[in-house]
């Protein structure tokens, strides 16, 4: 559903022109020439943005902005005027305006301002909604309603009741152990133990003893008998975390244990049966690893009855704010400090960052800001510098779902020309963003038949005041 924008200008022609421009940009514009009518409309319907002229006879745009912000506090207001001055700009900010544009309106600047304002509205609404519901989240739960997380939760629900081995793959910090715990909690084994071991963190010469146990006197420090994690997890679930880092000789022993459903403790000649469900997790691509003989292919197929791919945080960006609010709430509870607010400015920074460390990095970030925050509201300066200064070096290109599938060369042509258009024909900047040298870019443009004068002009809408 398109975002609704309320447009107010006492010049009917200008009002219609702005409404038409917004319509071409994908917004549902409702126009009126009466500020009082605009206030009545605000009481009757929901809008994502107000765009109003400043100089109007019935009521000035500044007064309208002040009354609209009191009426609907979260709605952004963009003011438009032909008589720009520092005094007007300061007054606009004082009465609560989000942005300030001058006439004649440039279509590109209008589009950018409206897009930022609408994003601000949705982020503010989302933060408010999450603040109201964050107390419902429980510690350790799988948080997120994005499409990738819905697929993960669906798989968990479908595999939970079986004893089939599950391979959980995902980048470091994505929450693979949380997925394993969710499987255990939803299974018939939930009353049994959940035991996890990080195979990469245990020295190779000790890993066999940790998993299978050892007999007394099996080695120098083996002063007592130990049962091992396979036996300790009997009746429950055993998670072999970072199984992709397990040494090859240990993989052979693990494969035998999984096939026979017994383990032989180090230094013993007796096999001990176990009854556990095996879950394995790794940040490596085990199919590739097995193809390159760095992981046993037969073990790969043994543990990969069902595979769950945990998405990176950048692939589930709609979950970022919900996760951030959850972590802030947890930090607040542990430290017995007030739960801080999250401004739309902070939310925008969190949403635009790539999070190479995934959910773990976000959790550490929220713990940091909670520690440094001196006020009820988190400030921009409380964020790590790399997040404060991050600027995504990419364009979000819209995709027309009705567009035909094209060849790779045609897709490249469209992409290059779109980037050039977004940069207003700046070839040097386009070459930099496309990671091409200028000669290569010029050669491609010549092949496309591109001429500087033929590029699409963003256009200027002459919306001067009467």
Q: What does this molecule look like?
A:
The protein is of the alpha/beta class. Helices cover 45% and strands 12% of the residues. It has 19 helices and 14 strands. The protein has a five-stranded parallel beta sheet, sandwiched between helices. The two termini are 34 Å apart. Residues 135-140, 393-403 and 454-466 have low confidence and may be disordered.
Quick overview of this protein structure:
By secondary structure, the protein is α/β, with parallel strands linked by helices. It is about 45% helix and about 10% strand.
Looking at the structure, what is the overall shape? elongated
The major pleated sheet works out as: 5 strands, parallel
Q: Low-confidence parts, pLDDT < 50 over ≥5 residues?
A: 135-140, 393-403, 454-466
Proportion in β-strands: 5-15%
Specify the number of helices: 19
Look at the structure and give the mean pLDDT: 84
Distance between the termini: 34 Å
Helix content: 40-55%
Radius of gyration: 30 Å
**Structural class of the helices, strands and pairings?**
alpha/beta
Major sheet: arrangement of strands: 2-1-3-4-5
